[in-house]
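Lab notebook, page 48
Experiment: co-folding of the full assembly
Goal: obtain a model of how the components sit together before planning crosslinking
Operator: M.T.
Materials (sequences as entered):
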Amino acid sequence: MVDVRSGIGEAVPPAEVEDVELYHPHSWWTRYVFSQDAKIIAIQYSTTAIAIGMVALVLSWLIRLQLGFPGTFELIDAERYYQFITMHGMIMVIYLLTALFLGGFGNYLIPLMVGARDMVFPYANMLSYWIYLLAVLVLAASFFAPGGPTGAGWTLYPPQAILSNTPGGRDWGIILMLSSLIIFIIGFTMGGLNYVVTVLQGRARGMTLMRMPLTVWGIITATVMALLAFPALFVACVMMLFDRLLGTSFFMPAIAEMGEQLEYGGGSPILFQHLFWFFGHPEVYIVALPAFGIVSDLISTHARKNIFGYRMMVWAIVIIGALSFVVWAHHMYVSGMNPYFGFFFATTTLIIAVPTAIKVYNWVLTLWRGDIHLTLPMLFALAFIVTFVNGGLTGLFLGNVVVDVPLSDTMFVVAHFHMVMGVAPILVIFGAIYHWYPKVTGRMLNEALGQLHFWVTFLGAYAIFFPMHYLGLVGVPRRYHELGDASFVTDSVHSLNAFISVAALIVGAAQIVFLFNLVWSLRHGREAGGNPWRATTLEWQTPETPPPHGNWGKELPVVYRWAYDYSVPGAPEDFIPQNQPAPGRMSHEAAS
Amino acid sequence: MSAPLKPSALEPLPRSSGLAGFASDWASDQRAFKNVSWGKAMMWIFLLSDTFVFGCFLIAYMSARMSTTVPWPNPSEVFALEIGGVHVPLILIAIMTFVLISSSGTMAMAVNYGYRRDRRKTAALMLLTALFGATFVGMQAFEWSKLIAEGVRPWGNPWGAAQFGSTFFMITGFHGTHVTFGVIFLLIIARKVWRGDFDTERRGFFTSRKGHYEIVEITGLYWHFVDLVWVFIFAFFYLW
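Observation: model returned without errors.
Model output:
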């Protein structure tokens, strides 16, 4: 990709964007609480997301305790079990992964990586966080509401979601869940518009789109997708809320409950599924694309090699984003929709494998003959590649209609999506935190605790999810709180379930080590300096670490090269920062 | 945000022409859309997102209407008024549409006077636009009360498919909320124009940023969008 780098030595065009006026806080409250600084907002987003994520972690323990040792724990009856899986799924997908990648990493990294002082509209950015917090609180409130949280499953399919046999269906659970989602979408839109406009219209001089680090490409594409996909969820939530509260029949067919004909009639549950998955499938990539982007940068930095096929990587991200809007009905092969749809959606689904495979090849080719440093971020990045390939391959099984139909609603599906959009992105989140923590706090995370955390998490995740493929193939259904003694449930199923549960408890405990590390290293970590990984991207070139309000001091950075000048032959060091002019041009640029 | 800036010591290199030129121009540094301010870009992207919201609402409505097994109420009967003993179909909705489309005209004039820095005319035209908008919402309230009096409810109506009332109240209600927010924005901005905030560069109460007359145009973008959406709602609800 020589042409990407041909920009070196070109004239840097004059500044088009005036340096922004920043809001300067006057009190502790406006500096640290109601802060308009994207970096503070990022930390607020991240801590909130991790806090509610801990709830989801505990829920997963409870789920596994029930599945591994059915009947042992009185606390977990069938109703509670459904509430736990519902809240676990929704929290992980929306309130943890989406919020952490876009609200957390997006806010922290976008302005720094594109060389801006802040997001373009810091005030709206601040509102975005507070509305997100409100959504989280509304969601958490459902645990304390009469009847408890909803137990409809994270897909919230009607009609069962609002019927009385589903936990929370005629109580507060489903109302709070739908309201929380609506609030989340409103808050996210405020932040998302900021991220998009900052990348499109607020970059530093010389930072062309094709010089942006892949992290920014991943986050920005995911944000655009979120802005187009969340509307479908918004509409579905509003309509279901009306079905529940006003007695409309958008999604409710004529239905009898407990021998009694309900008032509903004429609505279409399939319509909800279409709306939900028009959001739900892009959502998978909203979580995956930032991970793709971040992992590309981790691999390149820690293998001291330029990313292989940068342009291809960018286009793969964009194409995956576009394609993900036309595959949603592969979640609905067994819903009773027109069978011809299955043909179309299976085709589009399998086409996505092409750009995805390109990305995997390029990661591997970046590693090929690289100077690989097995640092913690690199370990997590490598673990991501393996896990993602695993989850991706089972995706090929499930994308085909004939294979999917028997596998639908079995543990195979649970194994697939946990591998591909649960474990894989979370491994990247860990890698990214180990990578950028020094920039955020000025200190390194503890290496020994990190190694412990990594090995337990990585191997443990496989101990949990690998056996689930087998369970699914045997025919163990998902969303059953107890298996009973049907003939297909062999002894191996029971012992594997117990094994998985023990592994899940251990992996969960390892995350507590990680949290301890985050807090402990704040004060006791090794001093990191400005650029501990000797990385090229702009966020490592800030005059101070952690970067102050406004990021860059007096002068905004000027960008002369792409983000991947590692191990350039003839260069004095094995990395050249993006803001370093080509030799011989320094004097001129300093003068202008 | 598009004020003249200090010239560079070097002119930028000439860019290639044709499609390649378009691509390199779009991907060039700092801004993808030249001469588009942050505020305007943000409003356009928001409107794109909002288009998807209305699109989903309308598609849901269409799918409900096409798949219903009970007859759908006849819109020209439902939305007719008796005026002086004469039965006029769709008269109210025609007037509402006329009012809203006219308000787009006054909005466009307000934008024009805004860029000429004619404070009085700008503010007056914005107020007129807001008045049209409020009239529209008022007539919508009248229409809602008439239908409610005739027995239309979100969960049912006397003439046929229950989804008629559900989709009608939901979609016109959502659109009416948009118009109401638009009226509120118009009043706030009109006050700022009238007070001369954009000439004195007074800073915003919340954002502490200087305002520009461009905000009139950005409000206008939103307003025209709400109008355009109405045209679709009108076509799909009343004319189908």
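Interpretation: Residues 3 and 311 of chain A are 10 Å apart (CA to CA).
Next step: discuss with group before ordering constructs.
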